[in-house]
Amino acid sequence: MITIEPLEVDGIIFTAVSVELPKTTLLTISNDVGYIMCAALDVDIFNEIPKLQERNVVAGRAMGVRTIDQLLHAPLEKITDASKEYGWEVGITGKEALLKIS
After folding, report:
1. How do residues 10-37 score in pLDDT, each as one tens digit?
2. What is the pLDDT of residues 38-66, one digit of tens each?
3. What does the alpha-carbon distance between residue 46 and residue 16 come to, in Å, rounded to a whole number?
4. Long-range Cβ contacts of 69-77 (<8 Å, 24+ apart)
5. d(Cα 38, Cα 64) in Å, to the nearest integer?
6. Residues with Cβ < 8 Å from 48, sequence gap 6 or more?
7. 16 near 4, Cβ under 8 Å?
8. Which of 12, 26, 58, 75 could form a disulfide with 102 if both were Cys (CB 3.0 to 4.6 A apart)?
9. What's the pTM?
10. Is pLDDT above 80 for 70?
11. CB-hemisphere CA count at 13 Å for 48?
12. Burial (CB count within 10 angstroms: exposed 0-12, middle 13-18, buried 19+), residue 93
């Protein structure tokens, strides 16, 4: 099942997506600038492959989250190089990261 819902964070609307997959759930919260996600996907690819680096993808990843609420409050353990332009750092919460790109 795929669930797509608006998510209000301190008065700002983001899009929360939950995709139920076999033995895991893919979670993302995004706006038109960037996104945060669970560890089901890898952000390193955007830092390591030159053609993808050119895209300047703003993304961060949190480990061990199972719900959108947990993703909001978990620290990001990986971020893309492009996200640093918005003040993202490893360790900030998903909520803090989202507010920096709002």
Report:
1. 999 999 999 998 888 999 999 999 999 9
2. 987 778 888 898 988 898 999 999 999 99
3. 21
4. 71/27, 71/29, 71/36, 71/37, 71/38, 72/9, 72/29, 72/98, 76/36, 77/39
5. 7
6. none
7. yes
8. 12
9. 0.90
10. yes
11. 4
12. middle
How far is Cα 88 from Cα 19, in angstroms, rounded to an integer?
A: 25
Residue 79 near residue 63 (C-beta atoms within 8 A): no
What pLDDT is stored for residue 21 in this prediction?
87
Output phi, psi for 92, to 5 deg: -70, 155
CA distance 100 to 8: 14
- The amino acid present at 4, given as its one-letter code, is I
d(CA 61, CA 57): 13
